[in-house]
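Recap from last week: sequence in, structure out.
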Amino acid sequence: MSLDYGLLRTLHRMLRQLTDIGERMDKGPRKVRIVAANEANFSKALDEAKAALLEMRKASNAKQLQLGEREAKIEDMKTKLNVCDSNKEFQLLKDRIAADLQANSVLQDEILEQLEKLDVLTDGVDASKKNHEKSQAESKRVSDEVALDLKALVAEKERITGELAGKEKEIPSDLLIQYRRLVTGKGEDALGATNTETCGNCNQTLTPQTVNDLMMKQPVFCKGCGCWMYLPENHPSA
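Predicted structure tokens:
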């Protein structure tokens, strides 16, 4: 039986093309998952920034309410100074007013510090919004791009699969079952080129008998990896 190495080369090329298409089809969903994860991270960061801003506003409002209540209390005590029944009561009120004024001064400083933090947190929310919006746009762009590429890859895969099925009909019938078993188990590595010295897939050294069979264009399977070997187009004996 004299094999057509051109047929084996064509089959191997098509199997490699299908492998490449399969890898490209797998990459698309991975890209979508990556940008989706980025979008989720930016969304989480935005939620956290908003929550921090809300808590700071609540804390600031509470302190301002407390300051207002203390100031009203001080004004009430100032009014009572005018109706004190004794010097002792008068002095006690003055001391309490002084202490509350000091406490209010500290509270005012705390409120000013909170207002500064509010400005920083507000800027943080704005920045998080922009990042989130950018990630949403990127996610949509990648998803649309992957969907378009996938459509083209599916069409290309169907075309090559059809052509491969046609070429496989040219394989000698007594070798077809072995070929299909190899393709099922090894994919594109079911076939392998050789330079008549080593297997192109596993680098197994070829025996003189194996080389002689190749020259005679007999079916030769690598003793190392089991692939169906063929001579490349540029080999003198091809």
